[in-house]
Design brief:
The complex is a heterodimer.
Chain A (H helix, E strand, L loop, with lengths): L1 H12 L17 E6 L10 E9 L5 E3 L6 E3 L1 E4 L7 E13 L2 E21 L3 E13 L9 E4 L3 E2 L7 E4 L1
Parallel strand pairs in A: 1-11
Antiparallel strand pairs in A: 1-5, 2-3, 2-4, 2-6, 6-7, 7-8, 8-10, 9-11
Chain B lengths: L1 H4 L3 H8 L2 E11 H9 L3 E11 L4 E15 L3 E17 L10 E21 L12 E2 L3 E22 L2 E15 L9 E2 L3 E2 L6 E19 L2
Antiparallel strand pairs in B: 1-2, 1-11, 2-3, 3-4, 4-5, 5-6, 5-7, 7-8, 8-11, 9-10
Classes of the chains: A mainly beta, B mainly beta.
Chain lengths: ~170, ~220
């Protein structure tokens, strides 16, 4: 009986694993974009030296965490959870030579509705998004030609939400 | 004793009969009172009572209110409400003459009527280093929630002064029902205690101080 009471007291007052958010818990999903070949729209086409930057207030460039210049055919971009739109600059052939940024920057803008969905006592809420519009800003030297929203609801990062032809 | 045994048989029988006190025992849970004063995120008051039915069996119950604020890294919520528990206690302890202590186990059926307020939360976003964490401070109320549960109770009650008892007990609980708040969950249920992600069980303990209002005396049958 005495041992049992001690055991119960330990359980009652010890820190429960329920209170710590496990790193494996699905988080607020990012926007996933895949890049396809303009001449053959069903074929994935890698973008050489792809690099993304976020655009904050008054168009200040905001570095995206863990974003590095790589040649790839898809990218995941974090959306602002406290706003209804987020803008990015996507560079093709990004490089820095003698302190000068070279490459072709194109600007994209995504607008969305958002909803905060309960996860757990330890992790709180995550945000899911519902894409309203996706636009590539027209410029004279545009490398992204057209875009198509494949799935409007951003609930996980396994889906491809937007397809871009280049 | 022997002096009397020299008299008639009937008087011997009468004088040897050990009588036990029967009555209504009422009290409070002192641990809840202590926590109310010591912990800023907790306040509760519980009245308890038992009524002796037979030599070993007691009808028992608790009524109380409880308010508790849960704070984790990502959210802060307050549960507040009233609860009622009723059941039976069985005294396993065979008392010496003139004593009415208890080492008991029993069960309770409990119900709670409560509200939860989500005070604030942070958006769980492992990519938040880019845009910063979003904290939502606008609270939200979830009213009219209820839950029911069964509990097993183990404890003792000892008479420290005439008719004054102190006792300790632990409770193991299993939730039978609950109203789930929309896009949230019941983190704490008054009377039941904190909930666990892994199941419907709960735990509780009490430190009771009770006064017995003796109503009559009765021999063990």
């Amino acid at each position: 009986m005495k041992k049992f009471i001690y055991l119960l007291l330990i359980v009652l007052f010890s820190c429960e694993k329920d209170d710590i958010c496990p790193g494996t818990t699905r988080t607020t999903p990012r926007l996933v974009i895949e890049f396809y070949d303009l001449t053959s729209p069903d074929e994935l086409l890698q973008v050489p030296g792809l690099f993304a930057l976020g655009l904050g207030a008054e168009d200040t460039e905001v570095p995206i965490n863990n974003e590095i210049v790589t040649t790839r055919s898809s990218i995941a971009l974090p959306l602002k959870t406290d706003a209804i739109e987020t803008e990015f600059i996507l560079y093709k052939s990004y490089d820095i030579i003698d302190g000068e940024v070279i490459g072709n920057p194109d600007r994209i803008k995504v607008t969305y509705d958002s909803e905060n969905v309960y996860v757990s006592r330890a992790c709180g809420y995550k945000t899911t998004f519902d894409i309203q519009t996706f636009a590539i800003t027209t410029d004279s030297d545009q490398w992204m030609i057209s875009s198509k929203i494949l799935i409007t609801e951003i609930t996980n990062e396994n889906d491809i939400h937007v397809k871009i032809l280049h | 004793m022997n002096l009397y045994s020299q008299e008639t048989d009937t008087t011997i029988a009468d004088s040897l009969v050990v009588k036990h006190k029967y009555g209504l025992r009422v009290g409070i849970d002192a641990s809840k009172l202590a926590r109310t004063f010591l912990e800023s995120d907790y306040s509760a008051f519980e009245l308890n009572a038992d009524y002796r039915l037979t030599y070993r069996l007691y009808a028992a119950g608790e009524i109380g209110n409880e308010e508790h604020t849960t704070s984790t890294d990502y959210l802060n919520s307050t549960a507040k409400g009233v609860y009622l528990k009723a059941g039976l206690d069985y005294n396993m302890y065979t008392n010496w003459a003139g004593m009415d202590n208890m080492v008991y186990f029993g069960f309770r059926f409990g119900i709670s009527d409560f509200d939860q307020r989500l005070n604030s939360y942070t958006i769980y976003d492992t990519n938040s280093l880019t845009w910063g964490q979003t904290e939502v401070l606008e609270g939200k109320d979830f009213k009219g929630l209820s839950s029911s549960w069964l509990e097993l109770i183990f404890g003792f009650k000892a008479e420290v002064l005439n008719n004054l008892f102190v006792g300790l007990n632990v409770q193991i609980k299993g939730r039978l029902s609950e109203t789930q708040p929309d896009n949230f969950e019941n983190i704490y249920i008054p009377g039941f205690g904190r909930t666990f992600d892994s199941g419907n069980f709960g735990l509780g303990f009490g430190y009771s101080v009770n006064y017995l209002i003796p109503l009559f005396k009765k021999a063990k049958q």
